[in-house]
Amino acid sequence: MRISAINLAHYRLVVVGGGAGGLGAASKFARKLPKNSIAIIEPSEFHYYQPGFTFVGSGELKLTDNTRSEIDLIPSNTKWYKNAAKTLDPEQNTVLLENGESLTYDYLIVATGIRPRYDLIKGLPEALSMEGSGVCSIYIPHFAEKTNREIEAFKGGKALFTFPAGPIKCAGAPQKIMYLADEIFRNRGIRGKAELHYYTSLPKIFGIEKYAVALQKIVEEKDIRLHPRRVLKEVRLDKKTAIFDIFNEEGKPSGETEESEYSFLHVGPPCRPVPAVSDCKALVDATGFVDVDPNTLQSRRFVNVFAVGDTANTPNAKTAAAVSGQLGALEKNLKAVMAGKPLTGSYDGYASCPLLVGGKKVILAEFTPKGPLETLPINQAVPRGISYFMKRHIMQPLYWHGLVKGLWNGPTTIRKILHFGRSE
Ligand code: FAD
């Protein structure tokens, strides 16, 4: 698509999206490029530490504990366009903003993340919006707060937790909130009046076998019923009923459905790229994610375009931890392209998911699509207090002071030191 609009300005580098990946990348290049040669396009006034939403749902943290003003995170020598990108035109090196202005660039980083699509489930937006409906989701700020109110209001009955088909941010979050809710119900003495059910599109509780084995044990110990290959398709608010598609062994809808009543329903939503990205057919694959080389993060079609974070079609789990792993490769490779040199940075598919399992313990899942890739020289599939301490007290400061400042490239070096002399 060709963009015709008033050209505002030209930048050496334009970063679309000022979330975890966009800020991390912009901060890195703000230290390398001359003043005002970088623009960040980001419509939101606030930046949320999304991994903290689970604690907002459980009531352990407030939303404000996970919120910063975007302006305080934008690198000082960078121009912030407080607007959304409407259209990307990589053939013309141009980005059109929602307000009709347009920017041109030498290099582009796409970092617009993915967004929960509650609207893909019939009846869900209405059920979520109604206070006291029992329906909630930690995936966006005000619903994370509502999740805590619904957990507190729960008095017993069926509590359902769902995991969608297709991409989702932090695939562990839908079960983290379940284990925390289980703990809250036990502490309030109402667990005996409650039935907990986990409905997942997957054939097992978690995609990586090592952690699936550990989590299976946990759900059995906590008397949580697992329903594999079930995908939420509809919520009937009037009857407080959830309807699920039953998936077959190929991971496709079988045509059959199943229903369950609920008193409480936590929804892990399907997540999709934003339209500004998915509508740019020259840039994306058939699923609407930016089509990049999974190692270099460079667009397969446009050498001056890179993507970082959830919106890239890399096969890793969509997490902030993955962003940290990607930023080092992105920095090397974009620098190389700018200097006309070969690309040497390579992202290995690293992601991490600290699975809160209750009792102030965490299974610290760290993995690539090939399997576990753990940093500590201990078995991280064992629920541990030290892993909880890292999740609760280390990771958030690391995010604010390391990741979004472009100073944290993931734990590879630490892993190498801790595993020195050990065979992998
Ligand atoms: P984001 O950080 O989401 O940023 C995308 C940005 O793009 C946003 O600021 C948005 O406003 C902006 N944007 C969108 N559209 C446009 C547009 N058209 N123009 C300009 N800007 C636009 N990760 C972990 O590592 N560990 C965890 O324990 C963990 N738990 C999580 C729990 C929950 C409930 C959630 C929701 C997420 C969790 N994550 C976790 C995932 C992590 O937050 C994301 O993977 C990470 O934020 C991805 O970074 P990103 O930059 O790709 O996207």
UniProtKB/TrEMBL annotation:
<keyword id="KW-0560">Oxidoreductase</keyword>
<dbReference type="GO" id="GO:0005739">
    <property type="term" value="C:mitochondrion"/>
</dbReference>
<dbReference type="InterPro" id="IPR023753">
    <property type="entry name" value="FAD/NAD-binding_dom"/>
</dbReference>
<dbReference type="GO" id="GO:0070221">
    <property type="term" value="P:sulfide oxidation, using sulfide:quinone oxidoreductase"/>
</dbReference>
<feature type="domain" description="FAD/NAD(P)-binding">
    <location>
        <begin position="11"/>
        <end position="124"/>
    </location>
</feature>
<comment type="function">
    <text>Catalyzes the oxidation of hydrogen sulfide with the help of a quinone, such as ubiquinone-10, giving rise to thiosulfate and ultimately to sulfane (molecular sulfur) atoms. Requires an additional electron acceptor; can use sulfite, sulfide or cyanide (in vitro). It is believed the in vivo electron acceptor is glutathione.</text>
</comment>
<dbReference type="InterPro" id="IPR015904">
    <property type="entry name" value="Sulphide_quinone_reductase"/>
</dbReference>
<dbReference type="GO" id="GO:0070224">
    <property type="term" value="F:sulfide:quinone oxidoreductase activity"/>
</dbReference>
<comment type="similarity">
    <text>Belongs to the SQRD family.</text>
</comment>
<dbReference type="GO" id="GO:0048038">
    <property type="term" value="F:quinone binding"/>
</dbReference>
<keyword id="KW-0274">FAD</keyword>
<dbReference type="GO" id="GO:0106436">
    <property type="term" value="F:glutathione-dependent sulfide quinone oxidoreductase activity"/>
</dbReference>
<dbReference type="InterPro" id="IPR036188">
    <property type="entry name" value="FAD/NAD-bd_sf"/>
</dbReference>
<keyword id="KW-0809">Transit peptide</keyword>
<dbReference type="GO" id="GO:0071949">
    <property type="term" value="F:FAD binding"/>
</dbReference>
<protein>
    <recommendedName>
        <fullName>Sulfide:quinone oxidoreductase, mitochondrial</fullName>
        <ecNumber>1.8.5.8</ecNumber>
    </recommendedName>
</protein>
<dbReference type="Pfam" id="PF07992">
    <property type="entry name" value="Pyr_redox_2"/>
</dbReference>
<keyword id="KW-0874">Quinone</keyword>
<keyword id="KW-0285">Flavoprotein</keyword>
<keyword id="KW-0496">Mitochondrion</keyword>
